[in-house]
Amino acid sequence: MNPTYCIDPFNRKRLPTMEVRIGQLTLGGDNPIRLQSMTTTDTMDTDGSVAQSIRMIDAGCELVRLTAPSKNEAENLGLIHQKLAELGYHVPLVADIHFTPNAAEIAAKLIEKVRVNPGNYADKKKFEEIDYTDESYQAELIRIETKFTPLVNLCKEYGTAMRIGTNHGSLSDRILSRYGDTPEGMVESAMEFIQICEKNDYHELVISMKASNTLVMVQAYRLLVHRMLQNGRCYPLHLGVTEAGDGEDGRIKSAVGIGALLEDGIGDTIRVSLTEEPEFEIPVARKLAEKYTNQSVYPLSVAASKLAHNPFEYTRRNSHEIHNIGGKHVPVVIADMSTKTELIPANFYGFGYNYSVSLDKWNLQDLAADYVYIGSNSLNFEVPGTLGVICDFNSWKEHFSERIGCYPQLTVDQLPELSKDQRAFLTLTAEEELPATLAEYAKLTLVVSTKYDNKTQLFRHFFSQLADAKIDIPVIIKIDSQESDVEKFQLTVSSDAGSLFIDGYGDGIWISGDQPNTLINSTAFGILQATRTRISKTEYISCPSCGRTLFDLQETTAKIRERTSHLKGIKIGIMGCIVNGPGEMADADYGYVGTGPGKINLYKEKTVVRKNVAAEEAVDSLIDLIKEHGDWVERS
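Predicted structure:
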């Protein structure tokens, strides 16, 4: 396949999309990246929905989405719209539609935009495996066109915009039967609806490809752009990682997925889906969008270069193994202790090592770094045997050359002084040319960084140089950030590093910055977790809540996290309703899904195994289910 999915993978240029008008707002084209969120109130609660919408708008929300699961909610959107206008708020409203075409047709006459999900708007989602013939498949497309065309014509008549929003977790049985649970299936699902719109000369479209798996999400958007470029018409793109979760994990995961696309100039509006109050999503989205303005860019002239990876599927770059780095090893994490004036065992707690004075032994946490860089510091105590120590070349020669587990870090100028069979770490910048003698050193690991903001493009060029030279040396991706704002720091480094790990690059991660060691360390592991390259903790696929939610998601997520956070590598989906719940269970080991007021269905993967469990008993029942399948361990 032609790998074209953006304007230039080596020089960031915004994808030119069509401009779409949504009420008084214009989206796409040369407009700034728009910020949006979704209410969590019951749409029939007019006053509550208005109040929450105002909080969102005051926080900077430029589009407010509300759920409309039935005709009643769709009709009430008109009243909410009227009350907001009376109070001086004219931000466009979006109706979130899933199973009810009639609700969409009502909403299209009352507010500025409707969102439909191709997987369940007029298609079937019963988790049935059906073998479609070409004839029966085509017959279903005709049926869908018949159901969907009335909405298209209404939107065209009333000047209403539409988002065609494909969700990985709600692909139809028909799409799954032909394409499987894949990015290709997501794109095809959207393209079918796009083609119906175009057949009716309707183009006020925004498209999204959401998934909780960042690799699937990024690949789906890239494939979609590839298809749109082929067709000669690029619609604006709404970016988001669905069910990202809460707190630090939700922010890192969102920054990894959304950031990987913004790095390539892809995206016209973003929604950061956090299991928190919707107005809290907007500042996070703003910080992420602001990263791509007023940047210091190193220009690359690489017209002849080609990508060293396939942007449409994940394949990790081949590198040879050096101890626990490269080869088939998971990416390592390197902690930086070089700025400390004097090292003591207590310093190591921040990156996962706890020294017991009374027992004279080290205890390792799940998020324990693999190496520590000490610069030119002395080290007057024994470190755990699992922890490698990296020090500056001159300090290594003088103090550490005979010490097991200690390795030098050097520059290109110092390379001639190094024995060619000595294990070492060589620092390079992503924008410089490769040293001519690099391949002669069999035990080098490269530590690559850049001070420029176009890190994704510079690293891509660097890896293409390695590929052209057929050099398979392991590479540590080093990200330096002096950002003082904690949230902005995490968003920035996550988007910088995340895009590279999604593309299969990196045998390790090294983050340095003016933040506490615990935060830097958890961010590094969080990036690897979000890119599925190293699983080191429990993963929660938790939806951000909306008016369909049947229980308190924040409270329930906290309860489940409290009981299960020690189950390393287990994925637990926590879904407020049935819309995306079962589908997202396919990407989780266990699922907790609201099915009615006070009632919960529990899933093993995408199969419901316990129905209508009372909410007050559901967390205990989930723990029992995990135990039954042999995935439970007691806390140590």
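Summary: The two ends are 49 Å apart (CA to CA).
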